[in-house]
Design brief:
Blueprint: H1 10-14, E1 21-26, H2 31-44, E2 49-55, H3 56-63, E3 78-82, E4 92-97, E5 100-106, H4 112-117, E6 122-128, H5 137-147, H6 155-162, H7 194-198, E7 208-213, H8 221-230, E8 234-239, E9 258-261, H9 264-269, E10 288-291, H10 310-325, H11 327-333
Parallel strand pairs: 1-2, 2-3, 7-8
Antiparallel strand pairs: 1-4, 4-5, 5-6, 9-10
């Protein structure tokens, strides 16, 4: 399979037919968006067995808000708050059918911003047809990783989660010998960390390392470790100027370099920084560079995007209007789910 970088729409995918079940894992969730938009699209496309897993602390915050709490959990889908030592942070969308599967692993939370407004990065795995078992490894990896966070002491919840596999024979049984190296790397408090799993897969003699994230630790300690382990001849570090943890201009960066502000026009002219997509007029895009001692810019900056499809813009506008005006209608139409959202208050979907 050829590697490719392309724009995709998670919202459009939700309406794709051929799947009978879904599980979504997220750190944060805006329940009105999931229940009134995502879930409706899934069910309309024939995906009727749906499970939502999210960080227990974020779920508790949602339950405490009259406008944000779930209304249809336990009735139309299974909700599983996950409590771990740190944060439950995977962003996974897994959909399966009798002879078809789609898996999205990326940075998107289950929110209006994550699915339609932000710039997010997602890896897409697809499996279909006669060769489906040969592509099943990442799907099984994601399924088993999430299964490990389902509370074993709640039989109804275990049954609801395991029900995702009903009528999906390729999620069980033997895997084709030519499954390849398409795998899902996961981490937990008791297992190996992600970086120690990634390092052996990094090729030797790296020319350029591109690093980009919305948040960095203050030092930034991990970026230093990454560069020390990979030892690239050049590093390009992308920094979101809106991040509360962003460095201030003039502060020391990595390898004796320093951070400095940069204008959007300079950002577009510089090399090897990738070209920014069209955004707001010049002068309105914040930018920060990290300059190596030679004076050459070696860190990129974020650029707010404005190039979205007309369908996405219409949908976003509609959702924003619905979010502003629809809280009372959600309350009228839906039954409130009460209770403390700990691991003991998991809400399994019961079919009538």
């Amino acid at each position: 399979m050829e590697d490719e970088l392309a724009s995709i729409s998670l919202m459009e995918h939700l309406s794709e037919p051929g799947f009978r079940a879904s599980v979504i894992a997220t750190y944060n969730c805006y329940f009105p968006f999931y229940e009134e938009v995502v879930l409706r699209r899934l069910v309309a496309a024939g995906c009727t067995h749906n499970v939502l897993m999210m960080d227990a602390a974020r779920c508790a915050e949602a339950f405490a808000s009259e406008d944000r709490r779930p209304r249809r959990a336990g009735r139309d889908y299974t909700l599983i708050p996950v409590e771990v030592g740190g944060a439950f942070h995977p962003k996974i969308l897994l959909r399966v059918g009798k002879s078809k599967g789609a898996l999205f692993v990326g940075s998107h939370n289950l929110t209006l911003s994550g699915f339609g407004l932000n710039d997010e990065v997602t890896t897409v795995f697809r499996a279909q047809g006669a060769s489906i078992r040969g592509a099943a490894a990442p799907f099984r990896g994601a399924f088993e990783f999430l299964a490990g966070h389902v509370p074993s002491g709640l039989p109804d919840v275990v049954e609801a989660y395991e029900g995702l596999k009903l009528g999906v024979p390729w999620l069980e049984g033997p895997v084709a010998a030519d499954a390849g190296d398409r795998v899902i790397l996961t981490s937990s408090a008791t297992g190996a960390d992600l970086w120690s799993q990634i390092v052996p897969r990094v090729p030797r003699d790296v020319a350029t390392a591109f690093v980009c994230a919305p948040f960095f630790d203050p030092k930034p300690a991990f970026a230093r470790r990454l560069l020390a382990d990979v030892r690239p001849r050049e590093a390009v570090i992308g920094i979101d100027p809106a991040s509360p943890a962003r460095p201030s201009p003039g502060s020391t960066a990595i390898g004796g370099s320093s951070y400095t502000s940069a204008s959007p026009s300079a950002l577009r002219r510089s090399s090897p920084t990738p070209r920014a997509r069209p955004g707001p007029p010049a002068g309105r895009v914040p930018a920060i560079w990290s300059c190596w001692p030679s004076g050459s810019p070696r860190a990129s900056a974020s650029c707010s995007t404005s190039t979205r499809s007309s369908a996405t813009r219409r949908w976003c506008s509609s959702m924003q209007a619905t979010r502003a005006a629809g809280a009372s209608s959600w309350r009228r139409r839906s039954r409130a789910c009460r209770g403390s959202p700990s691991a003991a208050s998991v809400l399994p979907h019961r079919r009538s």
